Amino acid sequence: MNETQPKLLMLMYGIIAFFAVVGILLLVVDRAPKRGREKVQLVAFLAPALLLLAVGLLIPAIRTVILSFKGPFSDTWVGLDNYAWMFTNGDSRRILLNTAAWVVLVPTLATTVGLLYAIVIDKARGEAFAKALVFMPMAISLVGASIIWKFVYTVRPADDNQIGLANQLLVLVGLEPYRFLQDPPWNTLFLIVILIWIQAGFAMVILSAAIKAVSADVIEAARLDGVNAWQMFRNVTLPSIRPAVVVVMVTITITTLKAFDIVRTTTGGQFETGVVATALYDQAFVFGEVGKGSALAVLLFVLVLPIVVYQVGVLRSQREIR
Amino acid sequence: MTARPLNRRRRAAAGIVGLALAATACGTGGSTASEGEADADASLPAGCEDYADYAGSSGTEVSMYTSIRDIEADRYVQSFEEFEKCTGITINYEGSGEFEAQLNVKVQGGNAPDIAFIPQPGLLQRFVQAGKVMEVPEGTAENVEEFWSEAWKEYGSVDGKLYAAPMGANVKSYVWYSPSQFEEAGYEVPTTLDELMALSDEIAGSGKKPWCAGIESGDATGWPATDWVEDMMLRTAGAETYDQWVNHEIPFNDDAVVEAVDAVGAILKNEKYVNAGFGDVRSIATTSFQDAGTPILEGECFLHRQASFYANQWPEGTTVAEDGDVFAFYLPSESEDSKPVLGGGEFVAAFADRPEVQKVQTYLSSDEYANTKAEIGDWISANTGLDVANVKNPIDQLSVETLQDESAEFRFDGSDLMPAAVGAGSFWNGMTEWINGAETKQVLDGIEESWPSS
């Protein structure tokens, strides 16, 4: 029935319904008795958001947890089997190790690179241009970036012309071409480089703004005390921008845990480069192992959770300082 | 074909049964079925006499979901045109590149298509076990009984019940070569495996690499290598052991499998044999299967094992014929007496049992449809009612002859029969690692470990 109606008409109905609901809601809130009006307002304005959160986030999350204790067809209970599989199977152990490598390396290296770059170019000539240069990769989608890097890493036989930038450089300095994407465990490292390339720009922009916000009085006072560049960085700049560093690290860590596009585009999880997110997709949607896929999803959630809690804590303590 | 008029009468009877079912479903009572048939027949447009069996569902729609896109999808849509015009049933065709994953999502979300073309019996089995797929209607069952071999019927069945009729087919046991190049060098098409190896040595002796291969295929990387192993299993271990291996009655790391994989290794991991036009052994892992055979055209490669559908991968202007630029020969077995054939195909599964859905199902399983579709081009079926004269290009003709050959022993692509975690997962990945340098035994142990326990 619905299919036969023109889509525009459906869209219009949707918009009208939306305004009707919001209108009635406002009307009801407005007409509420004086006593307890605040409570009514609270409920009325929070309810839609809570309802959507429940439908779109909470219920699926609970369902995923339940499914993770069930078999491939979600009809039998298997207890902790799926979790046991996750930590005992050779392939999935490799996946956990890879994920650990991603989570450790990407946030630290991306933040370090971003921070150093921000300090070096701070107040330098052509700062805006230098910033744009590093920030540019942020504008490229992860899949696009992965395809670019796949070309960079392309390998041809030693006696042929190299078409990949990385191998051309190797050949120029007289080395053998190297299979960047094919040799575990180092290939995971070369994939990590892609995400660092993208995220360093993000780190640089945020940290650069934070550096500029460091109060001029403090810097001048330090100068008068005769600090050298390292002391200035270690004892003045870094403590001042610590909250920004934490936010950058946390954000990048969460992005990294969800890393999926890069692995799937470049190697498809082959050559032992799989991570939790790609394994989750394969298990749940390709292999039909809904239980195992859900278990991996729960693991991902559990890994992200402490980071989010930490971030909320940081935000709260910042508010207290203010 | 001489048997055709008889077939048609039998199917008409089946059609009446189908209509009776339809009528009952509508609540009008079964006794009026034959009258309904007459009425419906009269209402068919002129020139539609062949479609009498499928009449009576005018104005209905059937949704169809497949993995086939682009030009091949257009050919499907074209093949339904007459059926749609005559019966008034509209077929809504949708092809998707993410078919396997999306079908899962659609079915689980209660949004299943009426009909899906499933290329993996293993996937079909999963949906049947989940209770989602309808058993085939009687008319379809009769068609399958009449037109398909026992092996094909078996692949569409679960626990002895037929759930999906076979449709398109392809033959994988082919080696592509250049007839003119062979003639120039004085090479003969080999008829046994030993002759094939001798030929490879001869070419290697002349200073050129004989074989080219490539297994890169996006997130399906590795599948051409699994086809190699399956083909060799059929040759070194035999069809019976092959079945046991596919059904996991023998472990995946059984000695028979090790032997077959090593037989593949004698070619694919032999630095003297591969990888013509691309580099060393490990370049196979990063060469896309689409590109893998092209060095044959440049005279750099002599042999390339790939399925019949590789005919579509040659650049435009390439003549695919026995006297053309490229053609294929049957990958020989150990002796000339045995002729195992590895192949693949699609199965038509229905997720609804409305009468119009059943009519489409039955039509797709008929010999008329097989001939109609084959005439449009680049498509064949293992339907024995398919007349070779209706098949246009030489490679498809060769494939139909191979499929209909009484002495040939057909086996379905094993990785499509295994649980997806193996057949679309660890087997692909394992073979990619194997090409990348891993040892046979170690790879097979890993795949055995990944076989789902339930």
TrEMBL record, chain B:
Return the InterPro entries for the record.
Bact_solute-bd_prot1, SBP
Q: Which domain of life is it from?
A: Bacteria
**Pfam families membership:** SBP_bac_1 (PF01547)
Instruction: Write the signal peptide boundaries.
Output: 1-25
Key word Transport present in the record?
yes
| Positions of transmembrane segments | none
> Which keywords accompany this UniProt record?
Signal, Transport
Q: Which family does it belong to?
A: Belongs to the bacterial solute-binding protein 1 family.
**This protein is called what?**
Alpha-glucosides-binding periplasmic protein AglE
Organism classification, top ranks? Bacteria, Bacillati, Actinomycetota, Actinomycetes, Frankiales
